[in-house]
């Protein structure tokens, strides 16, 4: 029984670390993409919680090409083909920019 409790505690602690690493990487990518530190932090928290690592990696590839306007970014995001990633990214941007979440 003690082994199971220890294993569950280890899994819970590790999942928290993975979440923090995901969030940190997403925030860095968003800042590199030109977002403010505050907006990137807000979006990264939500995106890391709602998107898989595979989805985040596909979004990271979009960051390689320069985008000059929001509409260019949205177009590239939609061409990515992942409806969930598009929804989470755009809703995160909207919620954070309007101040509904911080």
Summed over residues and divided by their number, the pLDDT gives a mean of 78
The secondary-structure class comes to mainly alpha
The separation of the N and C termini measures 40 Å
Count the helices. How many? 5
Structural domains: how many: 1
Work out the oligomeric state of the chains in this entry. single chain
The proportion of residues in beta strands is under 5%
Topology pattern, helix = H, strand = E: HHHHH
Poorly predicted regions are none
- Measured as a percent range, the helix fraction is over 70%
Biggest β-sheet, characterized?
none
**Radius of gyration in whole Å, from Cα?**
16 Å
Morphology: globular
Overall number of strands? 0
Any overview of this molecule?
The protein is an all-alpha fold. It has one domain (2-98). The chain is built from five helices and no strands.
What secondary-structure arrangement, pairings included, does this model have?
Blueprint: H1 2-32, H2 37-50, H3 53-62, H4 70-79, H5 83-98
Helix pairs in contact: 1-2, 2-5
What is this structure, in a nutshell?
This protein has helices at about 1-30, 35-50, 55-60, 70-80, 85-100. The chain has about 100 residues and is mainly alpha-helical. The protein has one domain (about 1-100).
Task: Name some characteristics of this structure.
102 residues; mainly alpha; 79% helix
């Amino acid at each position: 029984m003690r082994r199971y409790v220890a294993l569950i505690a280890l899994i819970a602690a590790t999942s928290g670390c993975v979440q923090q690493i995901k969030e940190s990487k997403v925030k860095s990518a968003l800042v590199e993409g030109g977002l403010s530190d505050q907006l990137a932090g807000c979006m990264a928290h939500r995106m890391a919680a709602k998107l898989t690592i595979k989805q985040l990696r596909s979004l990271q590839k979009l960051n390689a090409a320069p985008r000059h306007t929001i509409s260019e970014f949205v177009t590239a995001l939609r061409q990515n083909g992942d409806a969930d990633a598009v929804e989470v990214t755009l809703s995160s941007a909207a919620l954070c920019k309007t101040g509904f979440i911080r």
